[in-house]
TrEMBL record:
Protein's organism: Sulfuricurvum kujiense (strain ATCC BAA-921 / DSM 16994 / JCM 11577 / YK-1)
Stated name of the protein: histidine kinase
Pfam families: HATPase_c (PF02518)
GO molecular function, one term: phosphorelay sensor kinase activity
Membrane-spanning parts: none
Amino acid sequence: MKTANDHFIAFECLNSIGNSLELEEMLSEVISTFIRWTGAIAGKYIEPESLSSVPKHIGIDFSTPEILIASDEPFGLHQTSEGTVILDVPVDSGHFLFVFREDTAIESFGIMLSTFRIKLFNAINACKNVENLRTLNVNLEQQLDAEKNKNKMTEKLMISQSRMAVMGEMIGMIAHQWRQPITVIGIIANNTLLDIQLENTNSKQLINDLKLIDKHIHFLSRTIDDFRNFFRPNKLPQPVTFGEIAKDLMTIMGKSFDSQQIFLSFEGDSEIAFTTYKNELLQVFLNILNNAKDAFAENIIEHPAIRFHLSENEKNSLLFLISNNAGSIPSHILERIFEPYFSTKSEKNGTGLGLYMSSIIVEKHLNGSLRACSDANETTFAVHIPKNSNAKQYNVY
Ligand SMILES: Nc1ncnc2c1ncn2[C@@H]1O[C@H](COP(=O)(O)OP(=O)(O)OP(=O)(O)O)[C@@H](O)[C@H]1O
Ligand SMILES: [Mg+2]
């Protein structure tokens, strides 16, 4: 018959089960409570076959009996050589083991603990599930981070591919700017050489020629500076006027447009002032203008012309309309031109990133929108941006 004391011990032990979702903490509380109330010398929980993260034992370590009781038995007793008895209560894949002096009421503690087996089993499993969920969560977070990094890398790659393509165009434009001064320098050098051979040198003439060479060299070096400044991304928005934008575009593209007899006109008040990431906006315009230049060449247009029109739309926004008369873009192409890597230029080996990057720049960096429409003769790109861009810093790759 159970005494009031037995009930009290059972109540305390039962109460200690499942008070934490940390496996080690929960089991430690159960073991220490059981030791305290039953007078056991030591106690531990082990999972002999466990592959999970459960440590080899929880509690005070002592030698584990070689053969443990089968899991379908309520409990077992193992006699030790030190004159003690080990109580062995199997719970699912683990065992609770408690060392007692021989003269203790071990059997009744065995019966008591074995009646808690379902509760112990549930509490252990709850802890393990929480642990698995935590690991799963960490794995998911790691996967998410990896995906984010992958996306960032792809974006970086695209930006650098697009920049390489723009640089390719730039080298072509520099070549146009340089052709004339280099020819002049070459002619002066040849003439001077001839004068020396004919012993016809005249120091005044020589000085004039050298001054002319110097002037042209300055022009060459200024061209490089213009292009270099243009390709350096702005970190902060800067004040600029429509007139300055027009001048920069003419400096960069003028000569190459002249060589193909492309007529570029600017319509709108050149005094219109706004604040934006100027170089990024120029990069967008350059992509649009270069595409028009390619379309003129492909469609063999007799009088190629580009109209660049600026209007102040609503209170704080600007609308740039850039139209060219290179013919229409078929609708199945038009709907794809802003997709990354979409290009119809197999001969020129287009990257198909020009307009994609332009839309990213306009939408993400300049807080605006970029659209295109095309009718029988004309294609128009509309760049809509706020008059004053926020001075938020963005990543420059
Ligand atoms: N003004 C235009 N007239 C006709 N087609 C155009 C025009 N602008 C763009 N396109 C079409 O849009 C496609 C995508 O343009 P995008 O600038 O993104 O790439 P791309 O010009 O082909 O390559 P890249 O810019 O690297 O030279 C072009 O291949 C072309 O078919
Ligand atoms: Mg392009």
